[in-house]
Amino acid sequence: MRFLFTTAILVSISVGFGYFSSEVFDSDDLKDIISVLSNISAANFAIAGLWISQIYPEAMKAYTLPNVSIIEAGEKAERIESLILVVSTSALVLILILVIQFAVPFESLAKNTIYETWVETCKLTLICFLALIQLLVVTKLVYDMFIFSNQLYRKVLELKAHNRLN
Known about the structure:
Blueprint: H1 2-20, H2 27-64, H3 70-107, H4 116-165
Helix pairs in contact: 1-4, 2-3, 2-4, 3-4
């Protein structure tokens, strides 16, 4: 339910932005935005991929070995799920960027017609939506890294306290 609500808000913002700014932006501005979105997606792939490659084997060990805590496995599974969401969203952004790039040559068919404004509005709406979901994904990635480092420091402090008591 939360996902649908967030998506509805993002689509509403995107449609509003696309509708009210179709006269302001030109194709050169959009090319820069598309390039930035593509680079952010690539960075998300790299960061999330590194995390998944480290966490996944440990999570699988926790489910297959009897002496590893299931609670720890659940935490790792949640983190993997979150990272997979980051990778999936970044892949969706890249796919839609490819669709936009493929559709640009066909945009000239709508020039000087009643559909020209509609095509610009749709393009701006889609790019705004991609930027907003990419912003959410980057925020989620930073949040997950913060939570991970916080848990790591907590475990280090627990280990130090345990060693002092023994």
